[in-house]
């Protein structure tokens, strides 16, 4: 018996064509995504450009805080050109570095206060002493930085005068760090006893291992060494009446050797 076989003939799908279609669809999706992103970036750029030019974002005020010795009028010129800029264009770090041009300032912190204000918080140096170079007095901080020349403006600053900080009389002077360190130690220790601090008129640190102190209304030069300044000054104050009774005219008193005190009379 001869049977008839019915063949189910279907069109064969092209595998490569199918893959190509899938790839093209993915490419079109990526292109569409990038087109959307490009449109957003383009629109954002133009929106930002328009925003930067908006009048309400123009800096019209600088607020200064933290200043004690410097007036606002001395700080604002360090930031010339900021007023009138867009607040979005102000380089805060560059402006902070410009503050360091003042010897009084260690730097500062700046921040934007929308819509049109820049706040400047300055960090001032603190005067430690009055340093004498030739015949001029300067305010110096603990590092030896010259802050300003002393004058009527600083009449309320009443510090002992420190001599011998520099190796020569040239101006501007080169402060020797070891000498400034000695002066700072003396002043810091004396500040613990305000009555002793106020009694000191001058300090000489030409020898970085021996601070020589001069008291108000007392011509004797007091050699205090490199430590225990307050203790040695108090010892001298206690013994001064007795010393004056025994020595007619005292040039110097050396207090560096504990209870052994050496007194140099005036004259030969």
Summarize the structure.
The chain is α/β, with parallel strands linked by helices. Helix content is 33%, strand content 26%.
Can you put this structure into words, describing what you see?
- The protein contains six helices and twelve strands.
- The protein has a nine-stranded mixed β-sheet with strand order 6-5-4-7-8-9-10-11-12. Strands 1-3-2 form a three-stranded mixed β-sheet, with helices on one face.
- The protein has two domains: 55-124, Roll (Ubiquitin-like (UB roll)), CATH 3.10.20; 129-265, Cell division protein FtsQ/DivIB (Rossmann fold, 3-Layer(aba) Sandwich).
- The termini are far apart.
- By secondary structure, the chain is α/β, with parallel strands linked by helices.
- The model has no long low-confidence stretch (mean pLDDT 86).
- It has helices spanning 15-52, 72-75, 92-99, 177-190, 194-199, 229-246, and strands at residues 61-65, 105-113, 117-124, 129-133, 136-140, 146-149, 161-163, 200-207, 210-215, 221-223, 250-257, 260-265.
Q: Mind sketching the topology for me?
A:
Elements: H1 15-52, E1 61-65, H2 72-75, H3 92-99, E2 105-113, E3 117-124, E4 129-133, E5 136-140, E6 146-149, E7 161-163, H4 177-190, H5 194-199, E8 200-207, E9 210-215, E10 221-223, H6 229-246, E11 250-257, E12 260-265
């Amino acid at each position: 018996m001869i049977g008839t076989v019915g063949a189910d003939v279907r069109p064969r799908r092209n595998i490569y064509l199918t893959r190509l279609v899938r790839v093209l669809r993915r490419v079109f999706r990526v292109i569409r995504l990038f087109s959307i992103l490009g449109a957003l970036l383009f629109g954002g750029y133009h929106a930002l450009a328009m925003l930067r030019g908006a009048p309400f974002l123009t800096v019209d005020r600088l607020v200064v805080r933290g200043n004690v010795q410097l007036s606002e009028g001395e700080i604002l010129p360090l930031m010339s050109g900021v007023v009138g800029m867009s607040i979005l264009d102000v380089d805060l770090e560059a402006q902070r570095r410009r503050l360091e041009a003042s010897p009084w300032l260690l730097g500062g912190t700046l921040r934007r206060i929308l819509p049109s204000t820049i706040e400047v918080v300055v960090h001032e140096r603190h005067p430690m002493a009055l340093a004498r170079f030739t015949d001029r007095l300067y305010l110096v901080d603990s590092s030896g930085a010259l802050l300003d020349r002393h004058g009527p403006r600083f009449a309320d600053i009443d510090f002992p005068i420190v001599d011998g900080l520099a190796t020569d009389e040239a101006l501007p002077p080169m402060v020797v760090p070891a000498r400034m360190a000695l002066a700072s130690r003396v002043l810091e220790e004396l500040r613990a006893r305000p009555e002793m601090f106020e009694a000191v008129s001058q300090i000489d640190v030409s020898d970085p291992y021996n601070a020589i102190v001069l008291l108000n209304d007392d011509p004797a030069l007091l050699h205090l060494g490199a430590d225990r300044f307050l203790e040695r000054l108090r010892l001298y104050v206690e013994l001064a009446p007795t010393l004056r009774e025994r020595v007619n005219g005292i040039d110097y008193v050396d207090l560096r050797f504990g209870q052994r005190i050496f007194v140099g009379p005036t004259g030969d």
